[in-house]
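note to self — DONT lose this again. spent like an hour looking for the file last time. sequence + predicted structure for the chain T wanted, 162 res
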Amino acid sequence: QRAAHAKLDEAATREKAAQKKLLDRLRPEACEVCGLVYLDQSLYTAHLEYDVHEGYKQVREKLAELQVKKKEREKATKKHKKSESEERSHARGASRSKDGRGASRASRSKDTSRRREGRQEDRGSRRAMSAARDGGESARRRGEKPCSRSQQKQRRERSITG
């Protein structure tokens, strides 16, 4: 019986080795260009002549060409932006005052007051529009005297025209 078991074990080992050898030989591989899976070299060689393989090859070549052009264009754009930035900073430097601090404090304060006035005008026009919509109710809530319909109309027209 031991001899029979030994022969069976030996036969099973040979069968596993034969299967492994067969699987290694039939191991699927894929084409680097088009991704087609093939089992042996003759199928791979045949597929190289297929139109699909040629199409993928052309697409990959064109992609590589376009990527090179894109990199060149990005470099040129960066260079152009950098030169524009340098020109702007140079122009800003030329317009600065002699002490190198840029615009004078007086002109900066004028700019600030103009912005403040513009915001106040915007608030006024918004209030006029609100009063026109709700018949003066919003003015009453703020503790102000509501205005007449003609005044509301005038405020509305002023806020629309600017």
